[in-house]
Fold:
Amino acid sequence: MDGLLPRTVPPAARRLPTDRSPSTEHPMRPGTSGQAVGDASPADHTSVVAPLPRAADVAPRPALRVRAAAAVFSVALFLNAALLFAVQPMFTKAVLPLLGGTPSVWTTALLFFQVALLLGYLYAHHAAGRLPPRAQAAVHVGFVVLAALALPIARPTGWSPPETGSPVPWLLAVLTVSLGAPFLALAAGAPLLQRWFARTGHRSAGSPYFLYAASNAGSLAALLAYPTLIEPRLTLGEQSRAWALVYGALVLLLAACAALAAGRVAVASSAAVAPPAVPTRAPSARERATWTLLSFAPSSLLMGATTYLSTDVAAVPLLWVVPLALYLLSFVVVFARRRVLPHGLMLRLQPLVIAPLAVLMLVGTTKPLSVLATLHLLALFTTAMVCHGELAARRPPPERLTDFYLWLSVGGALGGVFNVLVAPRIFSSVWEYPLVLVLACALRPDLSRPRRPALARVLDVALPFALLLAIVLPVHFDLLTLSLEGRANAAAWGAAGVVAFLFRARPARLALGVAALIGGGVMAKRLAEGPPLFRARSFFGVYTVRADGRYHMLANGTTLHGGQLLREGYAREPLTYYHREGPVGSVFATLPPRPEGRRVAVVGLGAGTLACYAQPADAWTFYEIDPLAERIARDTALFTYLRDCAPRARVVIGDARRSLVGAPAGAYDLVLLDAFSSDAIPVHLLTREAVALYFQRLAAGGLLAVHVSNRHLDLVPVLAELARDARVAGVVGQDANFTEEQRSRLKSSSTWVVLTRRAADLAALARQPGWRTLPPRADVRLWTDDASDLISVFKWR
Structure:
């Protein structure tokens, strides 16, 4: 892959990022443009120099107007960028409840934003190239005003995601209808503003790159402010109205910028007169492919890192903006006039981060989260710094910036297309993330000076292959296990990581070495455990069913979500979090019997384990958002809980919040909330509005049982505040820590919260071992559909 990068780059093209050359900006960034001022025609850069006026004729007003141009344009670019990057987490959070809170909502939204930005650049490119200056201003200001008719931004009413098939096309349509016009107007505004500034007669008009600082500041400020200041303090409705007000202010600023550009003032200054343009050659197909790949890899890794964090914690804007902020920060740093982080330092740091990350992928560890999340984010940042640093070094002369930015935009959009549209169709697991990590290593510059190049190329393949054998064979012959427990394992896998790190000077060798670490772990595990019984991927996650001796186990991502012992006499016994000695067993043991049978609703199907508590006369309904989950639960070659324990149970496909609206009032005696998206409880299922809906569907004396087991979030305080707000009683039940022998029989500890209208209905349950009264209140914000606060319930230790 490193063959795509030129061995030698012409000095004019390979300006080091440390040069005091004008900064440029990322194509996914507001303020970025293929139509930067350097692309303007000579007429755009040349001021008309009038004859020298007499002293009595000189008026201070034009000079003041020119000086004010820099401030007006800077504020306009700041607000333009801030609006672009504030609306992304805001609107995506608004559509989460429609799709179960899955992290794929954010990655699909990122794809939309990337494609919309690319279309904005194309619009700006054609407007600047085909319209005279005054027409440009009139058309664009008119477009921005017309786009304001779509405000305030809100998801369209009456739109429901499809119950079968991928919801990606539906979500892209919602994004287009809801915010397509204003987003496109903002995306195109940044490059056009830079063109307009070049006509103001300001002394910096010939090189307006300082305006990028204002744009960078606006985007990063919006991203960092959203989870820390905006989301905790403003509801979604208030956020939308505030966004519309700022948009209105931007319209006025755009009109002012257009007026300043149209009323240009003559300045007899050499700084305002551009030198004659020197013709330059068009970029080659090889150069354009290099630009595309160097922007594709960080874009794809951005989505991979975001999916990892969102899947193992929660799909909330707090975790979305961190990878995106690091991604954008890399562009700010590499295209700055002075490099704070030298390119050579990033080249040295990247393998130092990726090698240990690959070792953790090799052994398949999922904790501690703090270490894993830090390594994933560092891998994203250092890789983005390396790739974007190479782009900065290969940027063409100003006359060719249009091609440069457009192909960078194409690479960014292709990263989204690959992760959102292509990878889920061709991979049954999340292979796109490690594959692009390998690609990023291959895109590094070759730092070696081999005396025998032919031998070096042979070793590029032979050494990683030897590393692969050194991983697979010891595990196959039971000499080592895929774990960091034990000195022998830790030493062996640590040494493997060191070997891969030593490949850093040769891009192909490092890439294949990282592939050997990650792929070797997969191959060794496959040889040790055999292929899974089932593996499939949907919009909502990756499902795997494995056989471990007598047990079948279902995992979504990295979390176990059900298991069954398929042996005569044991197949109806609930296991994992649902065993009879645990909290949920106590709930069913103390639930009053009904002659006509109990009516039970379960939000979340899993393997169908809870069906084991069904009695012959009971009426059970499972609400499941993912059709693939029902397919797994009904496949008797995988699990037989539904067939054996509740053959008459209904499964309603769709988000539970929407589906429960169709159930009659008082329809259920028990509602169990056991929805999952890996370890993340969808936030919209734990809000004031959701709890009100559950109690409307509960009969008199009915119970609401919520499974709150979570590795990273303490959800008990959230339920305490919801109970206080709804004026209902509650208890908390938790297992004791299990022995290794109990865990080997697929018994897992769990935590459940049970709410009811009258405390007396919980008397029998509260007397059971492991149960206690829910605290009367908690020091957390009440969660509603418009406002939630994840930081307050995060388990920092």
Notes: Residues 604 and 676 are 7 Å apart (CA to CA).
